[in-house]
Amino acid sequence: MASVRRLLCALLLLALPASLAAMPGGAVEADVRSGAALAAARFALSRAFAAGGGGGGLWALRTAETQVVNGIKYHLAIVLLRRRCSGDQAVGQEASRCAGPGKPEQVSCHFEVWSQPWAGRKELLKHECAPSEPSEEAQPAPLGQWEVFHPRAPALEVEEPFQGERFLQNASVHLVSLFKDFLNTYKKSYKDETETTRRFGIFAENLEKARIIQELDQGTAEYGVTKFSDLTEEEFRTTYLNPLLAKLPGRPMKPAALPRDPAPAEWDWRDHGAVTGVKDQGACGSCWAFSVTGNVEGQWFLRKGSLLSLSEQELLDCDALDKACQGGLPSNAYEAIERLGGLETERDYSYEGFEQKCEFSKEKVAVYINNSVEISRDENEIAAWLAKNGPISIALNAFAMQFYRRGISHPFFLLCNPWMIDHAVLLVGYGTRGHTPFWAIKNSWGEDWGEKGYYYLYRGSHACGMNTMCSSAMVD
Ligand SMILES: *[C@@H]1O[C@H](CO)[C@@H](O)[C@H](O)[C@H]1NC(C)=O
Ligand SMILES: *[C@@H]1O[C@H](CO)[C@@H](O)[C@H](O)[C@H]1NC(C)=O
């Protein structure tokens, strides 16, 4: 009886938002990543800032609501970030360095856009924009994707975020040669001319985006052309990242014991033979498996004295708690390794980059783990644990990584907010370059990305949420 009542309650709770949503004439929350909401926001921005002024920036939707009123009315809240002073350098060239890396100008806007698609009509009914103070205590909330804001260009009038044709017609020789270099360097080819044109448009827009990310960066990083420069943010996210990290709570693990000694000033496990070479996950959201094998490789080395490259494919195929190329959680993967009885080596169970039938064999187990622990969220304690115990599996927001080339990345808080964790990696060391403290992070996108496969991230401000999911296997 009680369980029936509980069930009824659950059903009522489920039904409630739907019945509210169905209220005739009411506004309904819309997905901040939906194409229609984005198109309405692009239109609103182009109207609101038609007079131009100020440099380029990046904008994202905070919330979107739609209302049916003889057409569709969009209520949109957006946030816009731009450099307080902005250079006019060409894309792909070094960003101007005005007055040091201060905080960007932040503008919050509320728009009402009324659209009658059948009549081809679209109007900006209301716009209110005001500077807002960048705050790190903002409510945890997801944002839509960041798009380039062109204050002077009419590009925003149109529904498409990029326009291959336009870029092709008016593309500078410089841009075309950058694209040709890109095609050669990364051995890219497309199926036909239409696709090549489209990819060139995305490439050009991405270079502009990278330029703005660099302008807004508070560290020393250089952003620009990478092997992901021909992908939209959406394509990049769905192919290479792992949104499950932010959505699922993860299996609880017991807290790691804190070392008594404070962290040394710097440490790098690569100098102590505990880290294998950089691997490449390919077009598969399996970062979680690489993060975990990297950690287990280090733990095994430190306990048993031999560095073995371990199998991610075993986790893709045999870890039923996770979702192979659709993502996974390190905390689940440790559990799976314990249940399976260990990991095979990379050589015995090699990486394919897609899910297959499980071919795990107990006879080939090369390493085992006995347990796993959750490590502190305090960056000093993370450093102390790392220096004493080995490389750590971490997760972070990978926003700044698509166009990262080198240097210490320190994206503005809102651009890389800690509640949108979408990538798992391996923390292998830390130190300072000049006066800038950094974390050294082993990524799994091959050696032809970043600094020979590594990402350097600012240390000391929880940058990109790097402190939110730190864990390790334990080998007894
Ligand atoms: C290309 O550039 C020319 C001259 O600068 C300009 O008149 C034209 O409108 C541009 N075309 C597009 C599609 O932006
Ligand atoms: C750790 O796990 C291995 C393999 O399952 C087992 O043989 C060993 O006894 C365990 N160690 C401890 C201390 O439980």
From TrEMBL:
<dbReference type="GO" id="GO:0004869">
    <property type="term" value="F:cysteine-type endopeptidase inhibitor activity"/>
</dbReference>
<keyword id="KW-0732">Signal</keyword>
<dbReference type="InterPro" id="IPR013201">
    <property type="entry name" value="Prot_inhib_I29"/>
</dbReference>
<keyword id="KW-0378">Hydrolase</keyword>
<feature type="domain" description="Cystatin">
    <location>
        <begin position="22"/>
        <end position="130"/>
    </location>
</feature>
<protein>
    <recommendedName>
        <fullName>Cathepsin F</fullName>
        <ecNumber>3.4.22.41</ecNumber>
    </recommendedName>
</protein>
<feature type="domain" description="Cathepsin propeptide inhibitor">
    <location>
        <begin position="179"/>
        <end position="236"/>
    </location>
</feature>
<comment type="function">
    <text>Thiol protease which is believed to participate in intracellular degradation and turnover of proteins. Has also been implicated in tumor invasion and metastasis.</text>
</comment>
<dbReference type="InterPro" id="IPR039417">
    <property type="entry name" value="Peptidase_C1A_papain-like"/>
</dbReference>
<dbReference type="InterPro" id="IPR038765">
    <property type="entry name" value="Papain-like_cys_pep_sf"/>
</dbReference>
<keyword id="KW-0865">Zymogen</keyword>
<dbReference type="Pfam" id="PF08246">
    <property type="entry name" value="Inhibitor_I29"/>
</dbReference>
<dbReference type="GO" id="GO:0006508">
    <property type="term" value="P:proteolysis"/>
</dbReference>
<dbReference type="InterPro" id="IPR000169">
    <property type="entry name" value="Pept_cys_AS"/>
</dbReference>
<dbReference type="GO" id="GO:0012505">
    <property type="term" value="C:endomembrane system"/>
</dbReference>
<keyword id="KW-0645">Protease</keyword>
<feature type="domain" description="Peptidase C1A papain C-terminal">
    <location>
        <begin position="263"/>
        <end position="474"/>
    </location>
</feature>
<dbReference type="GO" id="GO:0005764">
    <property type="term" value="C:lysosome"/>
</dbReference>
<dbReference type="InterPro" id="IPR025660">
    <property type="entry name" value="Pept_his_AS"/>
</dbReference>
<dbReference type="InterPro" id="IPR046350">
    <property type="entry name" value="Cystatin_sf"/>
</dbReference>
<keyword id="KW-1015">Disulfide bond</keyword>
<keyword id="KW-0788">Thiol protease</keyword>
<comment type="similarity">
    <text>Belongs to the peptidase C1 family.</text>
</comment>
<dbReference type="InterPro" id="IPR000010">
    <property type="entry name" value="Cystatin_dom"/>
</dbReference>
<dbReference type="GO" id="GO:0004197">
    <property type="term" value="F:cysteine-type endopeptidase activity"/>
</dbReference>
<dbReference type="InterPro" id="IPR013128">
    <property type="entry name" value="Peptidase_C1A"/>
</dbReference>
<keyword id="KW-0325">Glycoprotein</keyword>
<feature type="signal peptide">
    <location>
        <begin position="1"/>
        <end position="22"/>
    </location>
</feature>
<keyword id="KW-0458">Lysosome</keyword>
<dbReference type="InterPro" id="IPR000668">
    <property type="entry name" value="Peptidase_C1A_C"/>
</dbReference>
<dbReference type="Pfam" id="PF00112">
    <property type="entry name" value="Peptidase_C1"/>
</dbReference>
<dbReference type="GO" id="GO:0002376">
    <property type="term" value="P:immune system process"/>
</dbReference>
<dbReference type="GO" id="GO:0070013">
    <property type="term" value="C:intracellular organelle lumen"/>
</dbReference>
